[in-house]
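[job 4417] fold queue: 2 targets
>>> target A
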Amino acid sequence: MNTRRRLTGKVFSNKMDKTVIVEVSRSYRHRLYQKVVHSRRKYMAHDELNCEVGDQVRIVESRPISRHKRWVVEEILRSGHHSTGEEMETVP
């Protein structure tokens, strides 16, 4: 196993070509106030797997690919298909 960092997050945007923005959330307890703090961070990652918005993915640290990209999508853990309102029929 190599020493590259791996993070798990949700695909936030896929509007760029071969690039996705992955939002990584983490919760931790504040050392002094003991309150649970939720933090989010967005990473730009190189995408060869054609991820969709809402997919749960694992990203791995890599060499700098461009000015902002230092991560690569390693695998899609869970597909996040969003249901639209068209599939549900409304009953009067």
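>>> target B
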Amino acid sequence: MCNIAGYNGPRRAAPILLEMLRREEIYDGGYSTGIATVYEGKIHYRKVLGNVDTLIRETDALELPGSIGIAHSRPGRDMLCHAHPQVSNNGKLALVTNGTGYLEWEKLTDSARMLEADGFTFTSRLDPIQEKATPPLLTDGSPVWCLEVCVNLVEYYMRRGLSFEEAFLTAADSHPGERVNVMLNAADPSSIFVARNTRPIEALVADGESYIATTRFAFPDDVMGDVYSLPALRVAKVTREGVEFTPKRMKSMKVAEITPRTYKLAYEKIVGMLSSGECVWDDIELAMKNSPELWNEQNPVSQYAKVGYDVLWQLKCEGRLASRLGVQKHPKDDAKRTLAYMSLK
């Protein structure tokens, strides 16, 4: 699962973001990594194929200016143009996302061709045309990266008079999936914007600064404040003072809620897994996804990743979670990532 970190406060964002991302990438991610900040009305970003250490070693990411920013790592290792952040054609918007897919992939082709007709270009366009290419596809059949379509959709709707928040919600709602999208707008350096469908995102609101992350394991140990789980199907604005929600909700999908029964069953299942031996995050995530007894069958899209992280955090707070770090090779090449191998104490 991808990892997301965000910071909005009085201090320089880049060192904080990269340390948060380092704390997260032991669970998953680390094959491609990126960061974006806003400073003096511009998006500043860097990304690499590799982990946080690679990003710091090969770029000046640690020195990026600005006190607001987002960072991302993902377990995929495809091409550099697939790494996050994705930046819009006008260079004013930056997007990172965590998710496994969309409910209707073919609709992405319609959006990509609409943008193409409007003059948008794509740095992720593959040439020559690939056989068995997957959507989104341009008019000549060339595939482009889905997230580059998504960030440019926000710019497209803003060109047509929508506010950034309205454009962000419209773009997210038009292509629903098991996702959470996080964006920066260079024209509004006061806020980080989050559109959450199902993937987890947590917020820590402290004294005059706010943090967001895929999991609260990322939050600094020495910062005290209030922690919130952002609700599904909402768009939030994360300021230095806290989290605000737009009045409109995303309506294009239904999501199974985490009920007390869901949590109890998930807790018992994860404890059973960890009691039997070491597990990595992928084991736990798949177990939560492939346990239909946890979820309402009428809402097949569930919050399986969130409940998994919630249980792990509870076990940590109970003093029962043990972990050790181990190295795993990428199945396609010799790239390595560090994983947390978890068990019960």
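[job 4417] complete. Note on B: The domain at 260-344 is CATH 1.10.10.10 (Arc Repressor Mutant, subunit A).
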